[in-house]
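Thread: Modeling a multi-component assembly for a lab meeting

Hi all, long-time lurker, first post. My supervisor asked me to bring a structural picture of a complex we are working on to next week's group meeting, and I have zero experience with this. I have the sequence lines for every component (232 residues in total). Could someone generate the structure of the whole assembly? Inputs are pasted exactly as I received them:
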Amino acid sequence: DVKVTQSSRYLVKRTGEKVFLECVQDMDHENMFWYRQDPGLGLRLIYFSYDVKMKEKGDIPEGYSVSREKKERFSLILESASTNQTSMYLCASASGGLAGGRWRGANVLTFGAGSRLTVL
Amino acid sequence: DAKTTQPNSMESNEEEPVHLPCNHSTISGTDYIHWYRQLPSQGPEYVIHGLTSNVNNRMASLAIAEDRKSSTLILHRATLRDAAVYYCILRPSGGSNYKLTFGKGTLLTVNP
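Re: Modeling a multi-component assembly
Sure thing. I ran the full set together rather than chain by chain. Output:
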């Protein structure tokens, strides 16, 4: 019954390494998201994709990039990992299209289990 | 963006009802009210959502005040598995409305 799968639950990387976090959904959803979650800060949106090859910056995109070459897969890339990127990363997907740059409908999110990244 | 206010924590006993409050006094007319919960070491999971009318599903009930400035998530019989952080969020009606803002939520403790 798994719907949003994040490739790694735990990763340990070194400062300066390039890091790929992969997310796959099997619900044929148009929209996919990457959040990070830190104690006391809640969930913060990094990037959002509403279609293949389309992306929008979230609230904290600095230091991150994303790739969406196929509808079911959304990758988060840390070009040069830093210690302040140590965090829990959450991928989510949602159905519903954009019209005029705005979502229509309730747009419930389905989250993956999360990837805990430690950068040393 | 409209914000929500929730108590930091609440406590309940197993098999008793739980009422989790949420204030959203700046809600706009077309904002959806969503509730998610996050179990330990898991990603958030959807619980319920509503717009104006009260809603029921297999997990919970959502009671929305007539003026929509507050809502209450009702777990009819709490179980140990319901111990989680519960988030009340609003899906904004304008602008970049895919930017759902998750606050700190309410940590629910369920006592056996």
